[in-house]
Amino acid sequence: MCGIVGYIGTKQAAPIILEGLAKLEYRGYDSAGMAVYDGQKIRIKKSVGRLKVLEELTHGGDLLPGYLGVGHTRWATHGAPTDANSHPHYNEKETIAVVHNGIIENYISLRTKLEGKGYTFVSATDTEVLAHLLDYYYKGNPLEAITKVMHRVEGSYALGVIFAEYPDRIYAVRKASPLIVGQSPEGCFIASDVPAILKYTRTVYFMENLEVACLKDDSLTFYSADEEEIKKESITVDWDAEAAEKGGYEHFMLKEMYEQPKVLEDTLKKCIRNRDICIEELAMTEEDFASIKKIHIVACGSSYHAGVTGKYVIENLARVPVEVDLASEFRYRNPILEEGALVIVISQSGETADSLAAMADMRDKNVKVLALVNVAGSGIARGADYVIYTWAGPEIAVATTKAYSTQLMALYLFAMKLGKIKGALKQQEFEEMLQDLLRLPGQVERLLANTGRIQRFANRYVAARSIFFIGRGIDYAISLEGSLKLKEISYIHSEAYAAGELKHGTISLIEEGTLVVCVCTQPALYQKTISNMVEVKARGAIVLAVTNEENREMEKEADYVIYIPKNNPNFANSLAIIPLQLFGYYVAVEKGCDVDKPRNLAKSVTVE
Ligand code: M6R
Predict the structure, then answer these.
(1) Distance 28 CA to ligand 1 centre (A)
(2) What domains are defined for the chain?
(3) How sure is the predictor about 223, in pLDDT bands with cuts at 50, 70 and 90?
(4) Looking at residues 290-300, what average pLDDT do you find?
(5) pLDDT higher than 80, residue 239
(6) Residue nearest to atom 4 of ligand 1 (CA)
(7) For this structure, is 23 an active site residue?
(8) What gap in Å lies between CA 190 and CA 182, rounded to an integer?
């Protein structure tokens, strides 16, 4: 997704912007650019390619001197990744420059109207419409022009705008795309995400929908879309800047996998007190829990996969029915939501467009929404009725690992709390499960300490064309995530199947030498899954089994076996996912793939 950084203050803007954009690289991008006011006019440099190209083009920012500027990394939506389509975009007189994250949905009709009024477009982007529209409405008052544009455009936008006639300020605007504002003694900043400005300030304002900020070097003013001044509270961000660096690991993904024991422990420590679950930030009363009759889990990608596990665990432990939907489907499927329904939106970033939209729709329908999010202050965290934070810290690698693991933990805690309040879990059972949870971080650590076998195995399958993951129940949910981890970073085609469903079609793809990863951690389904394993083996598959350490007889059936430590079967996902994350990672490294920034992917999918 696109990244925005802007600065106005007492220092040279361009190097600060370049530095900030580098911290947003995790979002994925295909081109980059900057606009800096040099004392006389706004100068723009932009180029397709990595940030390095922009750094070279501007000699590390030296060729764009000035104390006021905005920068952008673009992830192409409208128009191919080209220099012309890169941001910033100018009006024709080059007196206004705009950077934009989001999508202007009515850009075609606006473009036609502007062309009718004589405006000439030089790019295929929706963003250029904004530059010309600002020009059209600008009669000497930038705030007035901006709010007029806000009333005309439909869609989502986070904007950084500078006007040559007002070289003492940057305007920031937001609707349904993330944007923060930071303040320090050396100036003010805008950014799509906190790490971009963490080096300079920890005093941050999270912009709400349809707010405008006017940044000067020594002051900040916020306005509504009606140009009325509004007061906002700042938040002090306590993230460790170091936490956003690789810390000696070859890739962020590897580092983040190894952080899993710690973040799981952090999440547990925050939530377990006096043999009970007390989720501090969760403003749900016992009555609120007791009134839940049905749960709808809504999410995308890995967060959806965590949700699939959540369905099994909540139904097992709390005996409350759960439906799980992909947010992109849920928002358009007209779901039946009766009295007592709770929607749980799961998201690492808290800014995923489909999840945000699904949540907004639920709020409009007066359905209570609980958000499970990693980023405090994100759109989903702010928009939900209730929040449970997953304490994974900043996750940089596009492929999620530690955030997914903390999502699982948050779901277990929620399921247990609900089960206890609903009377489905007796106190003794509840307390035993708390002990099981407390053993998980150490068990994950043991799995991560012993990676040689999975690495050797991964090296053997680097040339595989297609790999299948199968399992039943919670093992199916684990398979979904194992398969996604592999395919998104190694580019090997992979599919996850409910093991019992294989024979209804997909088994025709199994041939001599096809690798099938068989997840088999659920005691009640063990024999059933073994039967499916035997079926694929009979058709020539090579089977890697992931199973519990007591299942030694698995070695008779599978070609390779990875064991996970003994724990409650409801929590097996937290253990079985570790070798699968490692498998995907080692295959991708051996293939020479860009592990942290896989092609075509973005960390935070803020457009539909
Ligand atoms: O930030 P979110 O959890 O809402 O993101 C959802 C998906 O985009 C994300 O999980 C994606 O599937 C990751 N690439 C998975 O590793």
Answers:
(1) 13
(2) 3-237 (3.60.20.10), 244-448 (3.40.50.10490), 452-591 (3.40.50.10490)
(3) very high
(4) 98
(5) no
(6) 347
(7) no
(8) 6
Instruction: Read off the pTM.
Output: 0.76
Tell me which residues have their CB closer than 6 angstroms to ligand 1.
300-303, 347-349, 352, 355, 398-400, 484, 488, 601, 604-605
479 near 532, Cβ under 8 Å? no
Beta-bridged to residue 470, according to DSSP, are 497, 518
Gap from CA of 308 to ligand 1 centroid (Å): 14
Q: Can you tell me the mean pLDDT for 53-75?
A: 96
Q: Which helix (H) or strand (E) holds 422?
A: helix 402-422
Q: Please give the radius of gyration of the chain, using alpha carbons only, rounded to the nearest integer.
A: 25
591 is catalytic: no
> Which residue CA neighbors atom 14 of ligand 1 most closely?
399
Q: At what angle do helices 452-460 and 572-591 cross, to 10 degrees?
A: 50
Q: Looking at 103-216, which runs of residues are DSSP E strands?
A: 157-163, 170-175, 180-184, 187-191, 203-206, 211-215
Q: How far is CA 216 from CA 11, 166, 222, 365, 606, in A?
A: 13, 10, 12, 40, 28
Protein residue whose Cα sits closest to atom 12 of ligand 1: 301
Total residues belonging to the chain: 608
Per-residue b or e along 77-112, where b marks 16 or more CB atoms closer than 10 Å to that residue's CB: bbbeebebbbbbbbbeeebbbbbbbbbbeebeebbe
- Catalytic, out of 23, 46, 148, 603: 603
Q: How far is CA 127 from CA 187, 191, 605, in A?
A: 27, 17, 18
Per-residue pLDDT reduced to its tens digit, 398-456: 999 999 999 999 999 999 999 999 999 999 999 999 999 999 999 999 999 999 999 99
Cα angle for residues 16, 17, 20 (degrees, 5° grid): 85
Which among 296, 255, 333, 304 has a CA at the least distance from the CA of 496? 304
